[in-house]
Amino acid sequence: MKKVIVIGNGMVGYKFCEKLVNKANSTDFSIEVFGEEPRPAYDRVHLSEYFGDKSANELLLAPSKWYLENNIKLHTSSLISSIDPSKKEIKTYKNESFTYDYLVIVTGSSPFIPPIKGVEKKGVFVYRTLEDLDAMKSYASKLKSEGKIEAAVLGGGLLGLEAANAAKELGMNTHVIEFAPRLMPRQLDLPASNLLKQKVEAMNIQVHLEKATSEILGENGIESMAFNDNSSLKVDMLIISAGIRPRDELARNSGIKIGERGGIWVNNKMQTSEKDIYAIGEVALYNDGIYGLVAPGYDMANVAVEQITGGDLTMAPSIDMSTQLKLIGTEVASFGDPFIENDEVAVISFENKHKGIYKRINVTKDGKKLLGGILVGDASDYNTLFQLYINAMKLPENPEDLILGARGGEASSVGSVMDFPDSAQICSCESVSKGAICGMIQDETCCSVSDVVKNTKATTGCGGCKPMVVDLVNESLKALGKEVKETLCEHFSYNRQELYDLIKINKITTFNEALNLFGKGNGCETCKPALASLFASIYMETANRQITIQDSNDRFLANIQRNGTYSIVPRVPGGEITPEKLMVLGSVAKKYDLYTKITGGQRIDLFGAELHELPLIWKELIDAGFESGHAYGKSLRTVKSCVGSTWCRYGMHESVSFAIEIENRYRGLRSPHKLKGGVSGCIRECAEARGKDFGLIAVEGGWNLYVCGNGGATPKHAILLAEQLDDETCIKYLDRFLMFYIRTAAPLTRTAPWLEKLDGGIEYLKKVVIEDCLGIAEELEKEMQGLVNQYECEWKQAIEDPEMMKRFKHFVNSNDTDNNIEYVPLREQKMPKAWR
Amino acid sequence: MEQILQQYQSVASTKVMTWFHVGKINDFPENGGACIKYKAKQIAVYNFTRKSKWYACQNVCPHKMEMVLSRGMIGDLSGTPKVACPLHKKTFSLENGENLNGDDYKIATYPVKIENENVYIGFTD
Prior knowledge:
Chain B: Residues 20-121 form the Rieske domain. Chain B: Keywords: 2Fe-2S, Heme, Iron, Iron-sulfur, Metal-binding, Nitrate assimilation, Oxidoreductase. The complex is a heterodimer of chains A (836) and B (125). With 836 residues, chain A is of the alpha/beta class. Chain A has 26 helices and 38 strands. In chain A, 45% of the residues are buried. By secondary structure, chain B is mainly beta. Chain B has one domain (2-123): 3-layer Sandwich (Rieske Iron-sulfur Protein), CATH 2.102.10. Chain B is 4% helix and 46% strand. The mean pLDDT of chain B is 92.
């Protein structure tokens, strides 16, 4: 058996191991890995998510048990101090020796620290490891307690902007300082960079271009930065992201050939100057270049594995540096040669300042080949463009259609993903070709997207290729004559709409009955809440009847918070509330020591109620005339309103009165996802009704009705369904629209993505709702009226029934409460103490 | 934090020293769970009616260390009974405590005994 030693356990080091253990002859090799960091390899590409909602464990590429299961001996916190190529031996910093048959150096890179005076001061950080992030986090929280909030990032490249996002996530007021006259100078041209700058600044990150830092000033730690143009900036914390330097010191000291400007020299087999020693990833100098992206690193890992296991794969002569990512909420992509401009090249660009989109493609003069391009603000065309470029495919007759979309016809300008050659690389992170994916479907190795993901790891890197993989799998299945069907989960091979019909027609009333008749197994966290929602939408059944199929929020009729306590949101229809009721909320919050906050839906949220307190609090609220706000359900939340014509000097109609009427009509209505509404009294649109699932705006002669908008991660403006409606027609159309959505949408799909998938789009929806082309309008209205008539406040139901109250005890066998809950002060209130 | 986790070690039914009475079977909702207290421990107990089986495990979810697993939905994954944490939907096998999403977490499980409609959980202390 041959012994392979891997020095470095970063993303590329991990990939090398993964590829090696997946080889047919992998049992001929034993693998031992030395990593300098305390943790196994983690996803550095998504590092800033560590400040969002990802824990260190969630960022791991594989848990420690993966190494065990694959017989890989992993040493963490183990620095290697020397290599002796003649003895084929390495030494750790503790002076332990290990011999190898093959050595792979994957030591990666370290951040480049420019020689600026004062750079050693406290409060200056680099952005590379989880430990760096932990250090930044604790420094930032110390700063904030002293009222200091200014953070700067030195470097406006890709990583610098990621770091800026991280600083912002830490709650710091963030600046980006770039030496070049534009952001991301390696990937973007000037117009693209200007647009990105606008977008970054709109997120409250200030960008300073053409600034050369002369000195970092401060007594104990950094206090300010001085620039060559004699300006300065007050800074309490600085993150340096000014490029990378290969970690070649170990190889250099061991006599392995190093490039003039650093990096371990390798040939196209990833071999270094010494026999049986390979170098891959950011430390490797290949074709005079160092490549700081994950995809070329993964390719190098693949080549090294092939070489060591007896294959003859070599590295391509030119390395593709195309990249697509989301930076501070903005999609950015750059591929091929983004800047090329000469007599042989035609540049086609398109800019929409209003929507914040810039697209550029560089095409050969004859219009036949794509050479490169840039996308900012909307990178949805990236995959197609990248495939056209990388496979040197023939372009459509009018290449501008590629970025403008085909005008006049409805057909897509590029055709389907099935037109790509088999060699087309669909997932560049994991090097998976179209041929590989379609082949697995054809030979029946795989029969679903999840099978393909499991077998090829496609989509598990950046995830950008997901839509193409889904299309490829579905199209290949269709070509084989197999039915492509979206099913709920392993327990039900029906989709939501089919189950809606089955339950209704067969008058099924319990989950168990549905599972016995139409499913198999014992259910799960996907199908239980989906069916609970169907029972609610068909029979207006409250969450009190089948409690153990409810998602946990519905089961306890409150929103679970990070420490396992709950928040309470009583309904405040239209956002109108009397002083007396406000005082009740205040006194209840005070009595139970609840953190209070105004919600985005014009209500008041009371946080920190323990399970056993929920019924006590609700008893008081119900006695004061409140009812459930259903903030915990996939159901109607609020109908937001502006004050309207009763008070506002511009108001056209009574928006508050109408909002209250609508909210009270649809209260308690459960749906595939949450539903929000808005009513504005004039076109100034103060209620932001077009950001809602349904919105009404008062105009001369009635209401304009908009549908299928939302805020959130993918904001969508609602689209005009009908104009100048009177109150009655408006409600009639709303009834039809909502009921049609409830009947036909997939689980957890909001109205905007539902409309996007609806064949025929808004025009079809108009035909169904207004022209009644399906002949179901009356039925939809009747169903909705039935649901409205059966409404009951589920909290009132719950506190009046001792049997239902049982679920609000923390312990079955004790009256004690959860002693794991602790709080820390937050301004004049409190917040949960986090355990990890 | 680690101290909380160390309190919970799986108990094999052959190693039980104490069968602790925690309630009657109808104290636990059908096909769902509830929490019980034993000394300083919080244990989630599930009445998996569909399988005519009972399961018990630590109430603390090892992901964010909150006492919430008893409030999660139960079900199965290709036949393996499981619970989904109500906070982030991490799922765990109720048979051996393994995480079923491929994360590096594990929960401790405890044996359950039913006698004359009484529910007992097995401990070694």
